[in-house]
């Protein structure tokens, strides 16, 4: 499994009324890293042919992030079979190496032409193994 990651610095816009990162922001980061990983790997032909829709999302919150914390957001695809892929995301405080949130999402591949579910092709599977 190939891991894709990036660092994020928490800004005031990420905070809620308790002055820690709002849970909705974590969900946004999970979605953003998935899209960035996909876009970093696929060819123009693949991106012109398919898109993903979210079927199921679970997230476990394990700690809080505060203003100016540097976070590492990591993702990888666990498996792809049929029309779905299971993706994991971890959000870690870079300074303490503490896991702050862990997510598992099930995505469905959709054909842009038919707007219907499409089997995940071997070409796509190989890009993320």
UniProtKB/TrEMBL annotation:
Top-level division of the source organism's lineage: Bacteria
Acyl-ACP thioesterase N-terminal hotdog domain mapped to chain residues: 2-127
Keywords attached to this entry: Hydrolase
Keyword Nucleotide-binding: no
GO biological processes: fatty acid biosynthetic process
Molecular-function GO terms, alphabetical: fatty acyl-CoA hydrolase activity
Family, similarity comment: Belongs to the 4-hydroxybenzoyl-CoA thioesterase family.
Name of the protein described by the UniProt record: Thioesterase
């Amino acid at each position: 499994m190939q891991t894709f990651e990036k660092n994020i610095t928490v800004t005031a816009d990420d905070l809620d009324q308790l002055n820690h990162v709002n849970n909705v922001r974590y969900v946004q980061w999970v979605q953003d890293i998935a899209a960035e990983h996909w876009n970093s790997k696929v060819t123009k032909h693949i991106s012109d042919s398919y898109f993903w829709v979210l079927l199921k999302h679970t997230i476990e919150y394990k700690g809080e992030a505060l203003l100016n914390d540097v976070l590492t957001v990591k993702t990888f695809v666990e498996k792809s079979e049929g029309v779905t892929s299971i993706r994991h995301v971890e959000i870690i405080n870079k300074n303490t190496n503490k896991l702050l949130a862990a997510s598992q999402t099930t995505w469905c591949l959709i054909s842009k032409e038919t707007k219907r579910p499409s089997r995940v092709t071997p070409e796509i599977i190989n890009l993320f193994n």
